[in-house]
Write a structure and sequence with these properties.
The chain is of the alpha/beta class. Helix content is 54%, strand content 15%. The strands form three sheets. Strands 1, 2, 3, 4, 5, 6, 7, 8, 11, 12 and 13 form an eleven-stranded mixed beta sheet that branches. The longest helix is centred in the middle third of the chain and has 45 residues. It is elongated, with a radius of gyration of 34 Å. The termini are far apart. 37% of the residues are buried.
């Protein structure tokens, strides 16, 4: 029986090493596998774990980090002593089939290895082995995304004109094997004992990198054969630079090992060429690394500064404080200062339907912190907006790429609806952030299949619905995708966790005969039957997009198709509601921005010059329009004396004047302005009266102060015999009767 000595070098990858040992145990091979783990100063107690689960495994413990070559040599020496026939070098982060070793042993080669399969930027890459460019002294892996193996008499693999590091490689082979290679990757390598007996062990001067190229080069020079076999091994970490814990460490050893390789093999004129190229390449690599760090950090903090500037610039002169905001402040005041418990949140446009009370409690907390200041709500909104900036970067970087994340931050910073919304201290201003959490955690669950992210998504959905009811679309979309994936249990879990944040309002509705739920069930078909004719074209478009995205999901379920489907599905449902106002779409802002950023970076990565130019053009147009709109449209409108809503600073002036004139006498308030047909549209002034220390409004008082925010209505309703106070934005009429 053949003895195969399986060598695994473990460096802080205990879980992966244990997983690989379990895969070795499942190998259906007639050969005897002797696993040997070199514990390369992992800093973990792996020895005990291996002995408990895999007692047959040999563990060689090292207190120092020996590097790959030296660690392998320790195990090989032991294997030679135990008369092993083969040595199988394995990286811990590999996934192999149960017949993997059997297929390798059938190959007539002294050194053989599989096709290394790994994911890079969402695509599967196939590594066939390596080539050495003897002009520059560089070793590189030959990789492709086009993997089509044909079982026939003619050549089964042909890779034409594959350019890599200055040379073109051609492969043509028979019998499912590739021979025209210079070296094989050391992450999975089967080596006959005779190779070590004749050429010796790995060169320990190569701490990391190039040790496999050097060993294979020595073997080929001694007459041994190399082959890549048509069997794949999945390599999880390869190609994922973001998971490298020590990029500078790896960069240093890559450069040093390349230099050692050049000095070892290059002679005469080629040595000078290789050293010259090496020096230039070394400078380029180091400068690129430093430039990337500086560039990305500079861009990030520049965008962050722009993000903050557009949300704080002249905020004291333009902060809106509408009647609805004042209503929310009064409710939060009852919680913060009167110690009341509220089960209902802000009312919707329907008198029978309410949001959840969470916003009131968040606002109450900030009222306590800032002692009732009308800016408390703005501070809350600003904090949530900063969190939206952070989480947008995190989710986009995790689910797409770092470049997409940076572009999405730029788009978020300069998106007019985003910075305008961030300057409004209202409950619906928080909806985009919690919708982002819901969608981001859901996509993370979709990618990682860990239920904790599904629970977080459901929890964030429940909170988003409390901020604005249009986020209820998430309650239909996320479970719909789960059912499409045939995850019934996870769907039920989603609904269960979703209802937790809504427990106060549900408790209220249950104790009041389920009034809201009953009316909501009756209202939905009523809204659909009243479908506006003007909305049909947009609804048909949304429906077409919905069907298209559904087909895309079934064909290729990924982050992009899920985002596109969510936006299409949301637009469709919103237009089924009728002619939705603009603020119904606010919760879609993060998803829309991520989608635009992803498409822009996809254009930038395209090899066609026109598409690259198009991506730059999109970024410039978006940025230019965002800045132009802020300074030429948005800010002038807010500072315009005739604009609505009247900013907080002018409302404070009006209330201070009223309190000074009333001299602690009982009075009542009235106003004329936008939406003055609604009762209670004085709550913002009532809150300011309380905050500025005035006495509570008396509805029976004879002294009345009428605030004209609309000066056009002043000419219609004012009594010229009364007394008037003229301010920049408003006129106050004093009536004493």
């Amino acid at each position: 029986m053949k003895k195969v000595f399986a060598v695994i070098v473990n460096y802080r990858e205990t879980g992966k090493t244990l997983n690989l040992l379990s895969q070795l145990k499942k190998q259906k091979s007639k050969a005897k596998i002797i696993p040997a783990v070199v514990n390369n100063n992992s800093g973990e107690d792996i020895v005990l774990a291996i002995k408990n689960k895999f007692p047959e495994t040999i563990v060689i413990d090292s207190v120092n980090n020996l590097g790959f070559a030296k660690a392998v040599n320790k195990a090989v020496r032991l294997g030679l002593y135990k008369n092993a026939d083969y040595f199988w070098l394995l990286n811990p982060d590999l996934k192999i089939a149960s017949d993997f070793l059997t297929r390798l042993l059938k190959v007539r080669a002294d050194i053989c290895g599989p096709i290394i399969k790994y994911k890079k930027q969402g695509k599967w890459i196939y590594d066939l082995g390596g080539r050495i460019n003897w002009i520059w002294g560089r070793a590189c892996h030959v990789e492709t995304t086009d993997y089509q193996w044909r079982h026939s008499g003619e050549p089964v693999w042909r890779l034409q004109n594959h350019k890599k590091n200055g040379f073109r490689a051609r492969f043509a082979c028979q019998n499912d094997e590739v021979e025209s290679i210079d070296y094989l990757s050391g992450c999975c390598l089967l080596i006959k004992r005779q190779v070590f007996d004749k050429i010796g062990l790995l060169d320990e001067r190569f701490f990391l990198y190039y040790e496999d190229a050097d060993f294979c080069r020595r073997a080929v020079s001694s007459g041994f054969s190399l082959k890549t076999v048509n069997v794949s091994a999945i390599h999880y970490l390869k190609g994922q630079k973001k998971k490298e814990s020590k990029p500078l460490f790896n960069l240093y050893h890559n450069i040093i090992s390349n230099l050692l390789f050049i000095l070892k093999y290059q002679k005469n004129f080629r040595l000078f060429l290789s050293l010259g190229y090496f020096i230039l390449l070394g400078f380029k690599v180091v400068l690129n690394y430093l430039f990337d760090k500086i560039r990305y950090n500079f861009f990030f903090f520049t965008v962050l500064s722009l993000f903050i500037f557009l949300r704080v610039h002249l905020i004291s002169a333009t902060l809106p404080f509408t009647e609805e905001i004042g209503r929310d402040y009064l409710s939060a005041k009852h919680i913060a200062f009167d110690r009341q418990i509220l089960l209902l949140g802000p009312p919707s446009s329907h008198t029978w339907l309410f949001h959840g009370p969470l916003y009131y409690y968040l606002l109450a907390l900030f009222l306590l912190i800032f002692k009732g200041s009308p800016f408390s709500g703005y501070f809350l909104t600003f904090l949530i907006d900063i969190l939206e900036f952070v989480f947008l970067y995190y989710f986009t970087k995790t689910l797409f790429s770092k470049k997409t994340a940076l572009v999405s931050l730029l788009f978020l910073s300069l998106f007019p609806s985003s910075y305008a919304l961030a300057r409004i201290p209202a409950h619906y201003s928080l909806a985009p952030f919690f919708s982002l959490l819901s969608l981001g955690f859901f996509l993370t669950f979709f990618n990682r299949r860990r239920n904790v992210f599904l629970y977080l998504s459901a929890l964030a959905t429940g909170i988003a619905v409390q901020m604005h009811l249009s986020a209820m679309i998430l309650v239909f979309f996320c479970p719909g995708v789960l059912l499409l994936m045939k995850k019934v249990r996870e769907t039920l879990l989603f609904f269960g966790v979703f209802l937790l944040p809504l427990s106060p309002i549900l408790f209220y509705d249950v104790t009041h005969g389920l009034e809201m739920i009953k009316l909501l069930i009756l209202w939905l078909p009523y809204r659909i039957l009243r479908f506006s004719f003007l909305s049909w074209p947009l609804a048909v478009l949304a429906l077409a997009l919905g069907f298209l995205s559904l087909r895309m999901i079934k064909k290729n379920l990924n982050n992009f198709t899920l985002l596109l489907s969510f936006i299409s599905f949301s637009v469709l449902l919103l237009f089924l509601h009728g002619d939705p106002p603009l603020h119904y779409f606010y919760f879609l802002i993060p998803a829309f921005i991520i989608l635009c950023a992803h498409l822009t970076t996809k254009l930038q990565k395209n090899s066609r010059l026109l598409l690259k130019i198009a991506s730059v053009f999109i970024i410039l147009v978006w940025s230019g329009f965002g800045v132009y709109f802020f300074f030429q449209k948005y800010l002038p409108a807010q500072l315009n004396p005739g604009s609505y809503p009247v900013p907080l600073i002018d409302q404070e002036k009006a209330v201070i004047l009223i309190l000074s004139d009333a001299k602690n006498k009982p009075f009542k308030l009235w106003r004329y302005g936008d939406l003055d047909i609604f009762n209670g549209y004085l709550d913002n002034y009532r809150y300011l009266v309380w905050w500025l220390g005035g006495r509570e409004e008396d509805s029976k008082a004879l002294l009345t102060y009428t605030i004209y925010e609309d000066k056009g209505k002043f000419k219609t309703y004012a009594n010229l015999n009364d007394k008037f106070f003229y301010l920049d934005r408003v006129i106050i009429e004093k009536t004493n009767q």
